[in-house]
User: Fold this.
Amino acid sequence: MWKYFIKRLLQGVLTVWFIATATFFAMHNVPGDPLSNDRAMTEITRANLEAKYGLDQPLFTQYTIFLGNLLQGDFGISFTQENREVNDIIREHFPVSAILGILAVIFAATGGVLLGALTALYRNRLPDYVIMFLVILGISVPSFVVAALSQLGLVTLNTALGRTILPVAGWGTILHMLVPALVLGLSTMAYLTRLMRSSMLEVTSSDYVRTAKSKGVPATRIFTHHQLRNAVLPVVTVLGPAIAAITTGGFVVELVFAIPGLGRYFVEAVQQLDYTVIMGTTVFYGAFLVFMVILVDVVYGLIDPRVRLEQ
Amino acid sequence: MSDTSSVVVDADEGFTRSAGKQLALYALYAIAAVAAVMFVLSLAAGGAGSSATGNAIDVENNSITIALREEPPQMDAARATDASSNVVLSHVMEGLISYDLDAQPIPGVAERWEIREDGATFWLRENALWSDGVPVTAHDFVFSWRRVLNPETASQYAFILYPIKNAEAINTGQLPVETLGVRAAGDRVLEVEFERPTPYFDKLVSYLTYFPTREDFFKSTNGRYGADADMMLYNGPYVLTEWVHGSTMRWEKNPLYWNKENKGFLDEIRTAYITQDINAKLNLFKDGQIVDTHLLSPMLPTAMEQRWQIDRSMDGSVFYLEFNHRDNRITRNWNFRRAMQLAQDSTELVYKVLKEPSYIPGTTLFPAWLNGVSESFQKEYPPVEHKMNVQKAREHLALAKQELGIDEFPPLMMLTGDTPISLLAAEYYQQLFRENLGLELRLDVQIFKQRLEKMRQGEFDIVLSGWGPDYNDVLTYGDLFSSWNLQNRGRYNSPEMDSWIRIAQSELEPKKRMDAFGEIQRLLYEDVVIIPMYERGISFVVDPRLKDFRRRSVGPEVDYNFAYIDTSGQ
Amino acid sequence: MSEISAADFQPLTAGQETQVISRPSLSYWQDAWIRLKANRRALASLYIVIGLLAFTLLGPVLWPVDPARQDIDQISLPPGTDRNATIVAPYQPWFGDANLPGTGLRLAEPGTTQAVRLQWEVLPGANGHRVYRNLFPVGPEYAYGIPLAEILNNDTLYFEDRLDLQPGTYFYSVVALGPRGEITTEYESLEVDIQRVTTVAEAIERGLLEEGTNLQVGDQIELAWHPLGTDYLGRDMLARLMAGARVSLFIGIGAPLLFVLFGVTYGSVAGFVGGRVDQVMMRFADFVVALPFLLFMIVFKIAFGIGPGESGVFPMLVAMVVLLWPATARLVRGQILQIREQGYIDASRLLGAKTPYLVFRHMIPNTLGVVLVTLTFAIPSAIFTEAFLSFIGMGVAPPTPSWGSMSNEGIKTMLTTPHELIFPALFISLTVLAFNLLGDGLRDALDARMRNRE
Assistant:
């Protein structure tokens, strides 16, 4: 067990190094640099700025410095936020993205399981049709369209009621989080609903359910103990990748709802070619995902005795 | 799924009903649990940059809420380059000369001044104080200006101080900073020596790069000056009391500000939102969360439906197609440029394609709001009248072919930024020149920094470019195409242009000086240095209870220095 | 037991039927096809996919309109707009008319989409005027509408509006400016009906008239027909959707096809060779899987840039292939490892089958089902990725249209001209949906294990 865990951890570190290297060389391949500005600068000003950020060093030296700092957990100083360290930026903005992501995952998971069970229960009847129609919309409408439309809906709602029921943008309170998290979790929720539905149906037609029924086990007990419990397992397995997708996929929602998360910050940093922020964010997210996956694997192995970790 | 089993399950109504009840119970639990989790998360989020729902106007606390376009990189005026820093600094700092509600210069830290051919003298007022109560002295300006020009500071706006004696030499490392032509004659007199006559120096000193910095405080910050709210000293109508990076700022009334009667009427201004998303801003305004927002043309029907009082102002910038005049570029050929000039009409671009009511079709490099000798510059020196003439354009194109000795023009590179408006214009021009002249323009769409880099390297034939003013004088545009200006990315080089620009820079007699600008304007058209596209304006709305809010062409794009709340109209 | 004759011991002649097979033998693929056909939703999706391909490939033949052509007279028109226009004389600049009869705010000539010419007298107490245009009457809020112009003196008492004039009714107002240029409540208002017009020259330029046609001012003409309306530059939406389909489907189908192909090769080599090679190859795949996909799409996009005149389709394709192949590779490797242990492989090997035969006859065909399903599900996500990148401004470069970039443009004008968002978004949704349902159907049809699921 420990041996496996440590082995995975080492592999994870190696993977992070790979991500860092790929990002570093991709970024330094970019034409132009973050120092360019509206107002033309003299050569000496440019040279001084380059020296300040170490851009005057040979590429390989820059790379070793970058790796050295990375080992100490230091991503350097932002180019556009001149007095801020990338670490500070991540520390300030990542929690926002994380909270949004966690909420979205919770929405998606609870919504998906409940709705999936509901549709399976009322198969081929009105609730099934209504929910499956919504699921189809959730899967096939691009997230930015959903986000823009829901924001528009909020405005219309607030205008119609003459007061702010739910804020249309920004961050801070429960009310700010509700709609963005729902929008962010929507497609995952739709996916999980479908998964839960088919999983429920499979379980329903299984022998042990039939046996339980014929034995006269009460309906609620069959439903909760035999059907739900077994049907939820496949849903749990896809949660890991879903968390990863949601946490990094927050870009659109953060942009549309003006949420100060790391995703939005990343998009802005890209527009400004802010090397250090781009590299820092990518490496950070990469590391986060790698270790999330390891964690999910390990936890899953602990929960489900059928999975053997040494594979 | 096989039919038999499904029939069994579906037929069992009782099973479905009791299972459904159980499911509903679970759903209730789930909702309760999720609500609890959300509550906990919102407590956690409280620390991670919150923008509590406020009202656009809080009458009781005499406070307003606004949105900033982006997070200011830092608040050190010596190194500030972007619009957001400009907005904040213009509220929390004050230079030697300030401006009034109508953007006319008024005394700031200096109570009076004198500008001569060889220099200037500023007499500082006694009651101008830093936010820690220490008077603002002439030494603070000397320290600040030397710092701006010190090559180690790498200030990108250092050039704006070049009229001061030795400034350029210091900035390029040829002279020590102590040789700068500025000295403090006591605490309250600032003496400036000029490199060359600079009649517009009073316009320059209200720019933020000329703001003061106090040496002892600066040194105490250990290089973190302007990084946080407590890493700065203020001397403007407001002070920055809170800065949560990436999220909110709080500006409060500065109790020590000397001119409280005329500026800084609000107790508090909160920048609760940082967003570039104009739709989000519109929604925030509609929702009563922010006091003002600007409107793009697709939003105008909504604004009319809401019965808002829509206002407009010029944002100061002028946009144009800039040619690459370097050797071996086709765009170096005058007949070619003339053909392109004749084949387009900026009114069609603005009225039909961009559809922005506040934009003015471009006629010249010098925007309509600039002042001439006694009236507006455009009125005193009307731009050359342009008439689109495709027939004539084709003749010039044929001549260009002859002169260049080619049968067919190769595709031309048209460099553009990736903002919606520039993309729209670029796509329009691409098709326009294809239809009218049979030219193949290849769009080169680049993000901001990459476009600037390509402009610097001269990797373009035509670039969609623009210029915003640094100070309120025609020269902020007038010297753009001098051969020595680094901003002249197309490397236009004409001795005639250079000679007029030299006159415009140092002539003391206003009429002669403006005449020179008139000549520059004529030459820009006749030599087709650029093709003007539009003067940018802004349609905007303000909460009707907020009075005397201004949008500026020069300086901060939004100005709340004079704003106050008046609910009498409600 | 009946008598046994010698005839019963005659050997059977070749060709004689020995055994009656009650059902025709079906190959794996025939079986799958029958199952797919039985699935109505999957079949409908298949027809939609075929329809989309026809729309993309045949559409431009049936609707040969240049998607780049800009009809500046018909910008952002929703489908079904009235197309009748009156011929007027070419535009001439106008600087007021000193002899214009009447007083107050009035028109110098009837309002047209070419220009609205207004003239007025100095308003009481005015130090200048502002001209406004509104879709609604001014009302008690003094909501004058859109400020069109500001005239800071009392010498100019005329204004010509040429800004985006649409047929319909406008309410123009002239408002007096106070001493500091501020807005007052002193105003005059005028209701103006706008008529759609065009000139002979424009009609010829747009190909509506033959050169030399004799049309008089005042004659009626019908403007070009745009069945799905036009976009923000007056380009035909239908033609642009077809052109956009080419880009979106090229990326959406091309990228998955390439990375699945690469993944299959990589995975089967790793799986078949096994041992150290397999380990090294899979470790590398693990690295690539770990790259955060969207972040790297963006990083690649700026790192490799889009040169002048390039659409950026190719770099996007490459980036997707580079980042997405490992999933397929893993899957195929797993399958191959499984198949390698199957009894029929051993049997085949005993019968003398060579490695290439094993690979091509047994292994690859047996993974094809899984691969096909993966491919079908990869298409919707590739289409979404393209749309997402376009939304954050990192997609294909204009003027190349794609459904994603068209939706992104459409979002900006969502309130005023929803058709610019609805059509491309609809196409994206339809395509994504069709491939998803088709994928479901294929999975059910191809994968025996999944068959009993719904």
